[in-house]
Amino acid sequence: MQKDNTTLIKSGEKDKLKKSIKPKIRKKKAKKKRYLFLKFLILVLVCVIVFMTCALYGYRFIMEGTAQASVPLTEETGIVFKIPSGARTVNIAEELKNQGFIEDPRIYRIISKILGFDNAYKAGRYIISKDMNYYALMVRLSGEPLKNPTQDIMIPEGKTLVETARILAAQGYIDEVKFLKIAEKENKVFEFLKDVKATSSRKYPLEGYLYPDTYRMDEGWTEEDLIQRMLNEFDRVFTEEHYKRAEELGMTIDEVITLASLIEMEALYPADFKKISSVFHNRLNSEDLLLLQSDATIQYARIYEGLGRTSAVLFKDLEIDHPYNTYIHEGLPPGPICSPRIDAIEAALYPEKTNYYYFFATPDGTNIYNETLEDHNRDQQKYGVSGFD
Fold first, then answer.
1. Of 93, 79, 349, 359, residue with least CA distance to 240
2. Is residue 149 scored above 70 in pLDDT?
3. Residue 310 has pLDDT above 80, yes or no
4. d(Cα 213, Cα 40) in Å, to the nearest integer?
5. Nearest-CA neighbor of 262 among 202, 311, 199, 331?
């Protein structure tokens, strides 16, 4: 019996012990929850403080930058910074660092991306200051560039595309390789070029269409910009009336410009344009005289064979095996041999009505026209022009 009482006592003590432990566990759990909650509150508070600090700093940064960007600057009070065509944010940031405007190009790139400036930068010249913060620089460099039309680019008539590129490159206006690479590409944007293709006999589809004139180009222009301007000018001078007239003649636009380029090169004086045009039209419509026999096309063939122009076309030059040699190939050459001006284009479209099939130039540049080969040979002897040596 004694043993059973002991067991009961111990069992009662255990129950009491359990009852005394449970409140302590609950208190510890409650204390731990309060501790975690307090940590969470502190974390939230820290985040809020950090966020508010960043927001305040960002607000001040933007407001300060806006104020700096609005300060008028001239080339005397600021520094001219140039963004080249095709430059990306990384290029701009590096150049800003190189010139001492910023310290860390990575930060500039990050801020530029976050604030949406990456696609807003434009090629050109800008006036900025080393007092500007990153935001002010971004605002300035995404605004309108300086307008400074300081370069008048003169495109001469009567030159091949390669000669034109060489002249412009020698004057420091263009990169010759870039210019010619663009001219090699087909262009379907303009109506007059939609059927012009690059072929083995026609390397430059744009030959003949880079309209000769003087172009005032803003600073920062590229080879693409200059070519676009010349094509736009051709599009302006070649009117709807010209399209209709070409259709009346049964000629494509490319045939018209090709013929105009021959006229441009064969005449020393514009007064001869329409008479020379009549000779070529008469031959193109002839059943017997199928060769145009234009010395100008021989010069073009010489240039593209690497021989260069010659002061006089010789008999041996007529043997050049080239698609542009109109002494051995019938009809018009594969494409224009220069960029003709509007006077030559209109002469190609509106020739004089004559029965001339022959012409030659005297030593002073005067053109003599004939209907027959007999008269042509007689006048050549009369003026001391013996033909080919």
1. 349
2. no
3. no
4. 74
5. 331
Q: Which residues contact 383 (CB under 8 A, 6 or more apart)?
A: 360, 362, 363, 368
Please report the DSSP string for 175-224 in residue order.
-HHHHHHHHTS---SSGGGTT---BTTBS-TTTTTS--SEEEE-TT--HH
pLDDT at 8 over 50: no
- Which segments of the chain are extended strands (E)? 79-83, 124-128, 151-154, 214-217, 358-361, 367-370
Q: Where are the alpha helices (DSSP H) in 171-213?
A: 176-183
How far apart (Å, rounded) are the C-alpha atoms in residues 241 and 349? 10
CB 255 within 8 A of CB 332: yes
**Separation of alpha carbons 373 and 381, rounded Å:** 12
Q: Quote the pLDDT of residue 1.
A: 45
Read off the pTM: 0.63
Q: Is 10 exposed, middle or buried (0-12, 13-18, 19+ CB in 10 A)?
A: exposed
What is the Cα–Cα distance from 203 to 74, expressed in whole angstroms? 47
Mean pLDDT (the chain, rounded) = 84
Q: With beta carbons less than 8 A apart as the criterion, state whether 379 and 360 touch.
A: yes
Q: Give the pLDDT band of residue 28 (cuts 50, 70, 90).
A: low
The amino acid sitting at 149 is: P
Indicate the pLDDT class of residue 69, thresholds 50, 70 and 90: confident
